[in-house]
Amino acid sequence: MTKTAYSRNRPYSPDPDASEQVKHWHTPDLTADARSQDTRTNALNMHLPEATAAAAEEQEQELVIKPLTADDIEQMRQAAHDEGILQGKEEGFAKGYSEGREQGQQDGFKQGQAEGKRQGLEDGATELDTLRAELSVLLDQLQQPLAKIDNRVEQELLQLCLAMAKAVINVEVTTNPKVILQALQEAVSALPLQSSNLIIKLNPADVASVKRHYNDTELTERGWQLRPEPLVEQGGCLVESISSSVDRSLNQRIQSSLEHFLQLAETADSSEHAAAESSDIPTQQAQSNDAQSKDAQSEHSQLKDTQANDTQVKDTQVKDSPPND
């Protein structure tokens, strides 16, 4: 309804539509007017704006300090005490951990160094024994072929000596008739004294040489019967009696002489070897004494290191222990 209609129709009675609109009308907010009537001013005696006034009101509310009670003071003291204990515990733990770790590293390094040195010596000795055993086996394997070669060379040298001696003696026998006479005398002397009726087998060339030295009468008086034997080499003889016989052939005489020579050489080598072994005994004893002395020094050094480590650990424990009240 317009204003004109309202002024003409008095008194007014609202129609249903207007009544419905009145029902939905809201009461206006009057708090803004109340806030605008705030009498607080600033330093220039001017009213504060709404935002500044709200902030000032909140600041006044925050500045309100309640008085502390005994419980509050006790709680604050206990909290400060707990905080101090916790802080001291953390600082003490950090300091003790740092010092203990450093000391532990030093002690562990020294102990590990000593144990590592000892273990290294033991491992080195074991490895040295193994290498020594392997070297001994290799030397034995090398010496076996050498020993066989030595034996073969010895036999070949013996045969060479026999051949050379035989060649020299053959020349001597051919040019010197005294050789067969000396062999005959040696063979007869080797028989027992009561031997008689001796049969002497000679090379046909030597029979003539013996008969030139002894005539038939001397041969009969001596009881010698000369028999030519082509198998007997010139310069040798075989003397036989009823009970015994003597072989003074050329090969047998050479073999006997060489065996006697080799026996003398072996005796000389054995004497030199025994003398060398006797001279090596003091050297081996000295080496053994040196090794024992080094082992004793090593054990003494390890013992000193262990004692020093124990002393340092004890000193550390004494320093770290809390003082008595």
Automatic annotation (TrEMBL):
<dbReference type="InterPro" id="IPR000563">
    <property type="entry name" value="Flag_FliH"/>
</dbReference>
<comment type="function">
    <text>Needed for flagellar regrowth and assembly.</text>
</comment>
<keyword id="KW-0969">Cilium</keyword>
<dbReference type="GO" id="GO:0009288">
    <property type="term" value="C:bacterial-type flagellum"/>
</dbReference>
<comment type="similarity">
    <text>Belongs to the FliH family.</text>
</comment>
<feature type="compositionally biased region" description="Basic and acidic residues">
    <location>
        <begin position="292"/>
        <end position="303"/>
    </location>
</feature>
<protein>
    <recommendedName>
        <fullName>Flagellar assembly protein FliH</fullName>
    </recommendedName>
</protein>
<keyword id="KW-0282">Flagellum</keyword>
<dbReference type="GO" id="GO:0003774">
    <property type="term" value="F:cytoskeletal motor activity"/>
</dbReference>
<feature type="region of interest" description="Disordered">
    <location>
        <begin position="99"/>
        <end position="119"/>
    </location>
</feature>
<dbReference type="GO" id="GO:0015031">
    <property type="term" value="P:protein transport"/>
</dbReference>
<keyword id="KW-0813">Transport</keyword>
<feature type="region of interest" description="Disordered">
    <location>
        <begin position="1"/>
        <end position="34"/>
    </location>
</feature>
<feature type="region of interest" description="Disordered">
    <location>
        <begin position="268"/>
        <end position="325"/>
    </location>
</feature>
<feature type="domain" description="Flagellar assembly protein FliH/Type III secretion system HrpE">
    <location>
        <begin position="132"/>
        <end position="255"/>
    </location>
</feature>
<dbReference type="InterPro" id="IPR018035">
    <property type="entry name" value="Flagellar_FliH/T3SS_HrpE"/>
</dbReference>
<dbReference type="GO" id="GO:0005829">
    <property type="term" value="C:cytosol"/>
</dbReference>
<dbReference type="GO" id="GO:0044781">
    <property type="term" value="P:bacterial-type flagellum organization"/>
</dbReference>
<keyword id="KW-0963">Cytoplasm</keyword>
<dbReference type="Pfam" id="PF02108">
    <property type="entry name" value="FliH"/>
</dbReference>
<dbReference type="InterPro" id="IPR051472">
    <property type="entry name" value="T3SS_Stator/FliH"/>
</dbReference>
<keyword id="KW-0653">Protein transport</keyword>
<keyword id="KW-0966">Cell projection</keyword>
<keyword id="KW-1006">Bacterial flagellum protein export</keyword>
<dbReference type="GO" id="GO:0071973">
    <property type="term" value="P:bacterial-type flagellum-dependent cell motility"/>
</dbReference>
<keyword id="KW-1005">Bacterial flagellum biogenesis</keyword>
<feature type="compositionally biased region" description="Polar residues">
    <location>
        <begin position="280"/>
        <end position="291"/>
    </location>
</feature>
